Amino acid sequence: MNELLIKIMIKALQLPLLYMTLLFMSCQKNISDLEFEKNVMTEIFPDLIDSICIDYRTVLVPPPIYGEFIYDKEGNYIGVDSTKGTEKQEQEIVRWKLNQEAIEKDTSKLIVAFNPKIERNRKDLKEYLGQHFKVTEVFYPKIEGDSTFIVEFKNISLKGKFKLKDMSEFPKDRREFWRKKYDFVFSGAVYFTGIQFDKERKFGVLEGGFSCGRHCGIGVRIYIKKLNKKWIIDKIDNTSVS
After folding, report:
1. Rounded to a whole number, what is the largest CA-CA distance in the chain?
2. pLDDT, tens only, 49-83
3. Fewer Cβ atoms within 10 A, N terminus or C terminus of the chain?
4. Could you give the count of Cα atoms lying within 13 Å of 162 in the half-sphere of its Cβ?
5. Are 34 and 199 in contact (CB under 8 A)?
6. Average of pLDDT values for 95-99?
7. What's the pLDDT tens digit per position in 3-51?
């Protein structure tokens, strides 16, 4: 009788232990999924910034026109007749070129606002992932609760002249955000969504964008892949322009 009671008690203790083990393994899997995504984002982050961010000074002032505009009988624009260029236009082009050269030689860091909290994309990019990389199955992480993660951008070495500043340090009001006179060269704001992977997690796709003003910016879809144990950008498609 005592032996039977002992066996029953042992089995009763084993069930909670088994449950706790499975729960622990599940939590480990969830953490691993988020950590994997965060690690990939961290690895490819310098290339993302270098590819998406732009020096607004080089795009807000387009090259001057040299010549006269040409229109058809219906008033539709055809092109520019450069044979009718003026001396004043030549001088404007010279000044524009000198200004562009000065910008290119400027070694000042360009500050870009960035929200380090990466949220999962609201859109399912399975179709784009399949079309671009010819994959048929997508990896869906089993994550309960908050699926966001933080990019520790201050610990990541960036390329070129860009330097990130936490979005929380900027005015919350959008109008003031763009109109405020900063004591540094402010270039704009950049954002990225979480990454969607294929089942084997060798390919991925995410979205992002860069804004250089209230009505100035681009939206992009970024395809990444693992090549020789390193994550690289495979292609960037523009999804919107303003």
Report:
1. 112
2. 999 998 877 766 778 888 899 998 888 988 998 98
3. N
4. 26
5. no
6. 83
7. 655 555 555 445 454 444 443 334 444 547 889 999 999 999 999 999 9
